Amino acid sequence: MEKLDKTICRLAITGEIGAGKSTVAGYITQSGIPVLDLDSIAKKLMVTDEYLRAEIKAEFGDQAYTGHELNKKYLSEKAFKVGAVHRLNALVHPRVDKEVAKLESKIAQQGHRIIAKESALLLQHGRPNEIDVVIWVKTSIDIRRNRISNRPNLSQSDRDARIKYQSSLNLSQYLNRDRDKIIENNGTLQKLKTEVSWLTKELKNVCDTLFQSHNL
């Protein structure tokens, strides 16, 4: 196993669908901390990685793609509605991990010592060993339902299936109450931006402390 680079402080931004993870990630990026969107990376690889495309077709059928593009509606029905999302994740996640390692190395070479990763299912298989601090974006289910109802790429049944699946995982059980941070995103964007601004300052201090402990 490749030795973990302890000169990098790794943050994770996660929470259930509709919680506002991408908004929080955007504010953190504005603070100067690079954020890798793992879900976007996964979607890109599912189209551009020929090996992964072949695996997905073998598992879910040629209908998984329409020409060169991903058949999102078909895969959503196969994965979330039929309960085979774990099979899809088992194919995609190893390729994502490999790509993220490359991107992380490039970012570190640019002089960044703190890197954040955004993903809805980052805690799906427990807490990753490399993550120093998890930022859990927490929002009421009513607000989350209202937010995702405006997403044109998801039908009502798709939205309900994803909410049900993520809720069933009980991802928050993997939080470390002594170190991790919970952001309550039930208010205005200005309130959220202010809270994230204070949080990033705090996290930079947390990471400095971690660096010092690693050098002892």
Written account of the structure:
The protein has 216 residues and is α/β, with parallel strands linked by helices. The chain has one domain (9-214): Rossmann fold, CATH 3.40.50. Helices cover 53% and strands 13% of the residues. The chain contains eight helices and seven strands, in the order E-H-E-H-H-E-E-H-H-E-E-H-H-E-H. It has helices at residues 21-30, 38-48, 50-60, 72-81, 85-109, 141-148, 156-169, 189-214; strands at 9-14, 35-37, 65-66, 69-70, 114-118, 133-138, 181-184. The protein is globular.
Characteristic terms for this protein:
216 residues; alpha/beta; Rossmann fold; five-stranded parallel sheet; two-stranded antiparallel sheet; 8 helices; 13% strand; globular
Topology:
Elements: E1 9-14, H1 21-30, E2 35-37, H2 38-48, H3 50-60, E3 65-66, E4 69-70, H4 72-81, H5 85-109, E5 114-118, E6 133-138, H6 141-148, H7 156-169, E7 181-184, H8 189-214
Parallel strand pairs: 1-5, 1-6, 2-5, 6-7
Antiparallel strand pairs: 3-4
Q: Compute the gyration radius: what is it?
A: 18 Å
CATH class descriptor name: Alpha Beta
Shape: globular
Encode the helix/strand succession as letters: EHEHHEEHHEEHHEH
The helix count comes to 8
Q: Beta fraction of the residues? A: 5-15%
Cross-sheet strand order for the largest sheet = 2-5-1-6-7
- CATH homologous superfamily descriptor: P-loop containing nucleotide triphosphate hydrolases
Q: Give the total of domains.
A: 1
What is the CATH architecture descriptor?
A: 3-Layer(aba) Sandwich
Distance from N terminus to C terminus (CA atoms, Å) equals: 23 Å
Sheet with the most strands, sense and barrel status = 5 strands, parallel
Return the structural class. Answer: alpha/beta
Number of DSSP-assigned strands = 7
Query: Which whole number gives the mean pLDDT?
Result: 86
Provide the low-confidence segments as ranges.
Answer: none
The CATH topology comes to: Rossmann fold
Helix content: 40-55%
